[in-house]
Amino acid sequence: MFEKILIANRGEIALRIQRACKELGVATVAVHSTADADAMHVRLADESVCIGPPSAADSYLNIPTLMAACEVSGADAIHPGYGFLSENAHFADILEEHNITFIGPTADHIRLMGDKIMAKETVKALGIPVVPGSEGAITTDEEALAIAAEVGYPVIVKASAGGGGRGMKVAKTPEELPVALATARSESKAAFGDDTLYMERYLAKPRHIEVQVVGDGKGNAIHLGERDCSLQRRHQKVWEEAPSPSLNDAQRKQIGETCSNAIAQMKYRGVGTIEFLYENGEFFFIEMNTRLQVEHPVTEMITGVDLVIEQIRIAANAPLSVKQEDIRFHGHAIECRINAENPSTFMPSPGKITYYHPPGGLGVRVDSGVYVGYTVPAYYDSLIGKIIVHGKNRNECMMRQKRALNEFVIDGIETTIPLFTALINEPDIIDGQYDIHWLEHYLEKP
Ligand code: ADP
After folding, report:
1. 403-432, pLDDT tens digit by residue?
2. What angle do CA 63, 69, 71 make, to 5 degrees?
């Protein structure tokens, strides 16, 4: 096992990783920008290093400074969390060159899955169903028009280097396609420095269902069931639950096994998520994330497996701690992402928290790094915490989430809690009847 792990992240996820380290008896090093000097992840770490000014590019994304922080603290491994450098293959390469363990997959696997065209080809060859569309990149408008005529309109043009919902454009007709291509191309070039595009059939009312996988890097892999993340705004998840209200046990087992078989064949190391769109009983792969995800706690709640401890153990060359046949799914879990934002306009609302009372009780988990007197900085993502609740079944889970949301008090800033207290009373949400467009339609209503 490692002696000291440097956590190259901030906020709730830095704290989450620290908790796992402490339970493993591993010392922790927090890093922080000057804007985060008073953050909880800094206060609770065994030691901390300031890595630069507020801007993430100069601090949390600054590889030379992070390497120096490793050097001065004597950390033997780095956990990247999510976002920031978590899917940066170059960073993983550099760590390897310096004999510091990157707690995550190999740089080659990060690179492979970061290129969406290559990712799609790879998983298709391993038996995972993909969205029908172009085979590889599209080079000319004529080629795109021909492929679109074959797969049928509407189509979606996507950036091969894409992420965070950027560089995607829908075309409903052949007339719209050249414009969609041009816009996606320039957006992708600006955001990722790469304008390689591919195209897929645009699914009208799919759900977003993703499978959590874990591999040991030696050809052994398991799946921990699925999460339903269909409630999204601007392609960003806001509410996640497990199991999906729309799958039965047989479907769950089948897609889970398809994914774990692929992961085993790839000799994938660490935790990962295989994301699908699900429509009319069919799964269509969209991408694989080679990191821990924001919504990982819902899986932990229904399986009892600590995904961060598992990640760290695998990075330290330990075998998987559970076998597929030992995994049992218990009850239901729902996560609501609490953002420091106005709940109707979604404008960021940084500032000082003047009162903070988190919910508690059976089956309630709050992952957050905020406290009374803490100032939410304006420089980073507005996620300030997550409420994850567990219940025997979906109904109990919904009632408990409603109760927990009502108990939660955060004063001094605006948060998205009121959005969730409204959503939880919506008949479609109560019935689990929603697709990836549901929330956008709901928010458009006067
Ligand atoms: P990113 O990496 O930018 O998040 P994804 O490929 O994961 O891109 O897609 C993000 C979201 O965009 C999906 O959750 C879904 O809402 C929408 N989307 C992507 N591909 C399609 C498609 N073929 N049909 C319909 N919606 C899609």
Report:
1. 999 999 999 999 999 999 999 999 999 999
2. 105
- Give the dihedral of Cα atoms 337, 245, 269, 285; nearest 10 deg: -100
Which residue bears the tokens 């879990």?
333
Does the C-beta of 276 come closer than 6 Å to ligand 1?
no
440 Cα to the center of ligand 1, angstroms: 14
Which residue's CA is minimally distant from atom 8 of ligand 1? 165
Q: pLDDT (tens digit, 9 = 90+) per residue, 344-358?
A: 999 999 999 999 999
Residue 385 Cα, ligand 1 centroid: separation in angstroms? 24
Cβ atoms of residues 177 and 141 within 8 Å: yes
Q: Nearest to residue 133, comparing CAs of 208, 203, 211, 234?
A: 203
- Secondary structure of residue 193 in the 3-state scheme: coil
| Confidence (pTM) | 0.96
List, by residue number, the catalytic residues: 291
Do residues 242 and 225 touch, judged by C-beta distance below 8 A? yes
Residue 84 structure tokens: 């920031």
Ligand 1 site, residue 200, Cβ cutoff 6 A: yes
What does each C-alpha distance from 424 to 125, 224, 248, 402 come to in angstroms?
40, 26, 23, 7
The region of weakest confidence among 92-101, 156-165, 313-322, 356-365 is: 156-165
- Go through 374-403 and write b for each residue having 16 or more CB atoms within 10 A of its CB, e for each that does not: bebbebbbbbbbbbbbbbeebeebbebbbe
